[in-house]
Write a structure and sequence with these properties.
Elements: E1 2-11, H1 15-27, E2 32-35, H2 42-52, E3 58-62, E4 81-82, E5 85-86, H3 98-117, E6 125-127, H4 138-147, H5 166-179, E7 186-189, E8 202-206, E9 208-210, E10 216-223, E11 226-230, E12 241-243
Parallel strand pairs: 1-2, 1-8, 1-12, 2-3, 3-6, 7-8
Antiparallel strand pairs: 4-5, 9-10, 10-11
């Protein structure tokens, strides 16, 4: 039997994706979710999670790429912030200055604290646009996790689609070991699992949302401001698959 986690990213980012994630929990389509501390729908998302009984399955979606930061120092780092908002800088390979490292630490710490103050026990961590896997950001993300009792974190993408190099995977695993963090063995996107033999202890990422017709989808992007994507696969229907939670690894 193959154990699989299906994590819904972006909880709290917007009303539509938040409500889509709630529906996914109701239908058993996901096992866990990760929350954006700076999401515009954060407060309502916390209420919905507690109301629907999945507030014990929420991790943190560390964010340095979208929305408004929670702290001031990062706003003085033009690589990351323009006009008071994250500017979608996805380059995780660029070295960081001491000032940038300190500002990132403060921002990610504030994000963890916000979830804690909302009464959430953070079960695991990942990040918006996978910034936590960057060679220069990963140590800071790992430090924040350890300081806030977060022991589990997303694996670097090593299965299906655009996988990282073996050298990057080895480097990332060494960093996890250094900070005593636990992860699944494999990580991939739901769009990559068709006709795939899914290995044991794999995390599958899904972005629940609603398209222009109100249908539940795995969001790939937006066209004319509306999400588009494919229906969400019911992984539990695949032979020899059992769904687990991050708390189980």
């Amino acid at each position: 039997m193959t154990a699989v986690i299906i994590n819904a990213d972006d909880f709290g980012m917007s009303e539509s994706c938040t409500k889509a994630i709630v529906e996914c929990f109701e239908k058993g389509l996901v096992t866990d979710t990760t929350m954006l501390a700076n999401g515009v729908y954060f407060d309502e998302a916390v209420k919905l999670a507690k109301q629907e009984g999945f507030d014990d399955k929420i991790g943190i979606h560390l964010n340095l790429t979208e929305g408004e930061p929670l702290t001031e120092d990062i706003k003085g780092c033009p690589r990351f912030v323009t006009d008071g908002r994250f500017n979608k800088c996805y380059d995780r390979a660029l070295p960081l200055s001491a000032e940038e490292q300190a500002a990132i630490y403060k921002e990610l710490t504030a994000q963890a604290v916000k979830l804690e103050k909302a009464g959430l026990s953070i079960t695991h961590a990942d990040s918006h646009h996978h910034i936590h896997t960057g060679v220069w950001i990963a140590p800071t993300a790992a430090r924040v996790c350890r300081e806030h009792g977060i022991e589990k974190i997303r694996m670097i993408r090593n299965l299906g689609g655009r996988r990282v190099s073996s050298a990057d995977e080895v480097r990332y695993k060494e960093q996890l070991k250094e900070y005593g963090l636990i992860s699944t063995r494999y990580f991939t996107y739901m769009s990559n699992i068709q006709d795939m033999d899914i290995p044991d202890i794999t995390e599958i990422l899904v972005h629940p949302d609603y398209d222009e017709h109100g249908s539940l989808i795995d969001r790939k992007g937006k066209e004319k401001g509306m999400p588009f994507g494919n229906p969400i696969t019911r992984v539990s229907d695949i032979d020899d698959i059992t769904q687990i939670n991050y708390t189980d690894i």
